[in-house]
Amino acid sequence: MKHAPEPLSFEKSRSGVAPPRLPEAGVPSRATVPDHHRRRRAPELPRLSEPELLRHYSRLAALNFSISEHFYPLGSCTMKYNPVANEEAARLPGFAQLHPYQEEASIQGALELMWRLEQALCAIVGVDRVTLQPAAGAHGEWTALRMIQAFFESRGEERPEVIVPDSAHGTNPASAAMCGFSVVQVRSGADGRVDVADLHSKLSARTAALMLTNPNTLGLFEKEILAMAAAVHAVGAKLYYDGANLNALMGICRPGDMGFDAVHLNLHKTFTTPHGGGGPGAGPVGVKVDLAPFLPRPTVEAEGGGYRFDFDRPLSIGRVRSFYGNFGMLVRAYAYILAMGSDGLAQASQDAVLAANYLRKRVEHLLHLPYAGYCMHEFVASAGRVADGRVRALDIAKGLLERGIHAPTVYFPLIVPEALMIEPTETESKATLDTFVETLVEIVELANSDPAALRGEPRSLPISRLDEVAAARQPVLRWSPTLDSGENAAADRSSPQGAPRQPQAVPAPTA
Ligand SMILES: *Cc1c(COP(=O)(O)O)cnc(C)c1O
């Protein structure tokens, strides 16, 4: 493996350079921090001049793949353009400089924004209440399942099972397991949709919920959704909507109307708040009225012409996030919704579906499409037949990266071998989609003429091929200083001995 061309700032640090000067602390630390919590020696901050530091971070930033520089058809992740106007809104001093401990009377604008965003999301997905606290989709899943669990506990019903399709995103069974449910799998049929007969055989009085995404992770609309909702409700269970695929149907139809009782939304997917690289997300959860008493505390209520937090919710599952969620994301999502209006949101979804179908049609002679017919906002192809199986989905993904296009999601969903999951989103031009197709043609030609050459790519990027297994099993998540003694060495005893100091691979993202 090649090393990243940019060493860590700690590795570049020179002892001859003066330590960084920090601004005066705004609080009297001597008075407030007890002696035993105060550090005994200065932190080992890297010693570099200001221009050196600036160049360091600029070079690191240039190593990124990002939506502001590249087409990013990462299926299931809705990597759409993040409007710059959203950033302006989030940067308004009245929003950016709030402190979460301010008095309610001094944050009426922020509370109003949260209240209005809740109303907008309720209208878009067809639910009665929304919590804005969860920090991501997976966190939203967990929050909703906790509410469903609390709902059944309050009725004295024991329902230990959650049903999840075999095509589901990995976070679905993970969230269910983290809540203490046992996960029951339901099969997909030959058409890529839930096998309704199999679902009937799995539903019982032990079922707490069925978790579904619609369109599903294959980009296919679950046409039997009303029958499935009726079957779930007939055994007294709840229907949960994984809203990661909402970009296919905003303003066109609503999960609430399909019979879903709880819905999470990924503001960082559908509602243009930036994501990727582990930055802040937001996974609000909407619920129908009978789950509303269990919402996390506090809710925001409109009262007497103003707004207030309501902590007095005895059945609440409690707080699920410090303070009130990732507020900056809420501002961006609200700005987007206002700018688009309901017609604009519907147009966005229609364009997303059109773009995906255009690409699907244009790549059908290059890749194998396991499911016939139209897709929604994304589609799943298989690379299993490219060059008679001499290359893999991973090789095609790396070939795209080499040519300046972010790879599609690979090897997900699990039920399609050598899966490439492609989601162009509505924000890309036809010219960009055509460039993608031309690039894919070039890669498939190379796969046929010289598969070994494709397997050697990428050649021009800082990192070529990774040991994916080691990266997933033995991640080295922090750099340890090579100090021989003192506090730092003691603090680092927990890290693996002799761990290599090199950039770590992360598993292929599906979020
Ligand atoms: C992204 C995604 C999730 C999880 O959302 P995060 O915000 O990444 O936690 C869940 N389900 C599906 C189908 C997704 O695409």
From TrEMBL:
GO terms for cellular component: cytosol; glycine cleavage complex. InterPro entries: GcvPB, GDC-P_C, GDC_P, PyrdxlP-dep_Trfase, PyrdxlP-dep_Trfase_major, PyrdxlP-dep_Trfase_small. GO terms for molecular function: glycine binding; glycine dehydrogenase (decarboxylating) activity; pyridoxal phosphate binding. It catalyses: N(6)-[(R)-lipoyl]-L-lysyl-[glycine-cleavage complex H protein] + glycine + H(+) = N(6)-[(R)-S(8)-aminomethyldihydrolipoyl]-L-lysyl-[glycine-cleavage complex H protein] + CO2. Its EC number is 1.4.4.2. The glycine cleavage system is composed of four proteins: P, T, L and H. In this organism, the P 'protein' is a heterodimer of two subunits. PANTHER family: GLYCINE DEHYDROGENASE (DECARBOXYLATING), MITOCHONDRIAL (PTHR11773:SF1), GLYCINE DEHYDROGENASE, DECARBOXYLATING (PTHR11773). The glycine cleavage system catalyzes the degradation of glycine. The P protein binds the alpha-amino group of glycine through its pyridoxal phosphate cofactor; CO(2) is released and the remaining methylamine moiety is then transferred to the lipoamide cofactor of the H protein. This is Probable glycine dehydrogenase (decarboxylating) subunit 2.
